[in-house]
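Exercise 3.2. Students should predict the tertiary structure of the chain below and write it as structure tokens, then compare their answer with the key that follows.

Predict this chain's 3D structure.
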Amino acid sequence: MPLGERFGQWQYRHTCCRYRHLPMKRIALILTEDFYATGVTATLDLLQLANGLLGPDSAPLFDWRLYSQDGQPRTASNGLPIAVAGDFAALDQADALVLPAIRYQELSQLQRRLDSEPQIGALIRRCHATGTLVCANCTGVSWLAHSGLLDGRQATISWWLIDWLRQRYPLIRLQPYAVVAEQDGVISSGAASAHYNLTLRLIERLGGSDLAIRCAQRALVDRHRPSQAPYADFQQFVGHHDPLIARAQQWLQQQMAQPFVLGALADALATSERTLMRRFRQTLGASPLQYLQRLRMQAARRLLECSTLEIKQIAAEVGYGDVSSFRRLFKRELSCAPGYYRRATRDQMKASDRGENGIQRQS
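Answer key:
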């Protein structure tokens, strides 16, 4: 029997919750092929935890159902089959809609999938129009972006999709590296485990901050993680199968400190500038110059973390002769100044060495 067979009906049939006299909150989770199971199971675990924290004499506050486009079970990316309550037409009266992360191999595959499943976008818009809180985690945020719901609104996404989102959906008010972003009844969260922060925000909106704090304490989740930046690396630029782009990446790595000239890169690879631009955007979701800037920022981060070089020296090492330009670009890309980044990461490493729990945050 697929996991979730018991999710065919609302779990609790109470019409009212005695917790602060709030009506029961119904949460609908949308399952698509190759969704990440933890985005579903961990969400339900936190909701169940919230219900349990209300005490033995209180009726549950949260109830949930799972849905798929055709009402059939869906298989998670790890091979786990999960049953659903019904199709999209059966979804009504939900207080919150949650879209978990989805797995993809290459950006072109993700884009084709978004284009081929317009029913999900229609469901997202319909639910939001009726007052439903709409939430998505990690790569699942791409459904919100493609639906148009994020146009003009603040949003975040997995750190490796920042460039792709900025380029493909320019009307979104992107909050780079934010763990959670919220505006107008739409909540998005960053990579992977940010689904905990997303669910805690959902609990806060529908059940109050006190309940969300208690859930975070019990689950050992930092509700206020400020940024994905300390965890970001160059994963968004690897794992593809384009030999031309792989050669270009190697060349840019070797020439990182030199002034960038697109024609020089094209000549080195015996291809045209137009072909380079097209293949970079198809494969990496960024232009060659954008990729190089990320490469330089990555190198600068490592030097800030591990060296004693002055910021002016670091700027020169990664290809910026003007330290002011380097500072501006660093702050724009990582939402903090180089000096702050160095202090924060070193404080974090010191705390780790002492066995302390917590991360220093920007005030």
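Discussion points: Residues 5-10, 12-20, 356-363 have pLDDT under 50 and may be disordered. The beta strands are 25-30, 62-67, 74-75, 81-82, 96-99, 133-137, 154-155, 173-174, 180-183, 186-189.
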